[in-house]
Amino acid sequence: MLKFSILWASLLLFFMGGCATKHYTVSEPKLITIKTPKLKFSDMGYIRYAQDAIEVELFTAGVAVEKISIDQDVCVSAGCMSEEAFNHDYLYEGYPRDTMRRILQGKDIFEGVGKGESPTGLSQQSIKNEKMDILYRHSVKEVYFKDRMNGLMIKIGDVQEDNTTTK
């Protein structure tokens, strides 16, 4: 009987507390490609925002296969971890803590180091040293991140709506 009471009390605390559902203010369908040593994905996904919290839900053939949530921690299907631990496990440990968050938001990385802008509104950063060779471009419609030395690539683009019909 005591075990039963403890189980119900635990479930009640779980639903009332820490795992509250986040209400995102923006939800956008995107074509997402992520290639890291630990994660390989290229298909449709959704990026959701709420202030500085961000969630990426990845789909393959219409089925959700992975979710990456970044708020206080980074949560993936394998569990939650700090942004530093996420960089170590999924990206490259030498990156600043907020690198993945900023890429997903389409913001400058590495505090804007190596930044230039084109007349079309495309921001570009080039960061090269003995441990990384990064090309990062972002605009309203596309985000492209590639680190040639560490074998990483993230590409996020708008979903093209094709309203033409074939006859």
Descriptive report:
The protein is of the alpha+beta class and about 170 residues long. It has one domain (about 25-160): Lipoprotein localisation LolA/LolB/LppX (outer membrane lipoprotein receptor (LolB), chain A, Clam). The protein contains 3 helices and 11 strands, in the order αββββββααβββββ. The protein has an 11-stranded antiparallel β-sheet with strand order 6-5-4-3-2-1-11-10-9-8-7. It is globular. Residues about 1-20 have low confidence and may be disordered.
CATH class: Mainly Beta
Task: Kindly report the CATH topology.
Answer: outer membrane lipoprotein receptor (LolB), chain A
Global outline: globular
CA-to-CA gap between the ends?
Answer: 69 Å
What is the CATH homology-level superfamily?
Answer: Lipoprotein localisation LolA/LolB/LppX
The pLDDT mean sits at 84
Instruction: Compute the CA-based radius of gyration.
Output: 19 Å
- Count every helix, treating DSSP H or I runs of 4 or more residues as helices: 3
